[in-house]
Amino acid sequence: MNQREINRAVARATGEDLSEISRRGFSIADPAVIGFDPEPTEFDEAIDWDELDGERGVSVLPLRRSERLAA
Question: Which residue has the higher pLDDT, 5 or 50?
C-alpha cells in the first residue's frame, strides 16, 4: 500500500478531506516493531484524564438550579 492509498483509505474511514489527511501525515505501523511511535513524546506514561478529574473533585456535569418556572 502506497502513501496515496493510505491517505484515501483514512479519508474514507474518517470522512475528512483528503488534503487534511495528507497534511496530518498518516502511515502504517509495522506490528513487528514493538513500541513503534512515529512521534515519540517526552512523557514516560499516559495521563488518565478521567482519573485526574476524579482526584480533583471537579464535576464534569453542568450545575443545575432548582428553580420553578412561573406559570
Answer: 5
How many domains, the chain?
Answer: 1
Position 65 scores a pLDDT of 63
Question: Could you tell me if residue 37 is inside a domain?
Answer: no
Q: Is the pLDDT of residue 55 over 60?
A: yes
Give the range of the structural domain holding residue 24, as residue numbers without chain letter. Answer: 1-29
Judge whether 18 and 3 are in contact, CB under 8 Å.
no
**Cα–Cα distances in Å, from 33 out to 17, 18, 22, 29, 30?**
30, 28, 24, 8, 6
7 lies in a domain? yes
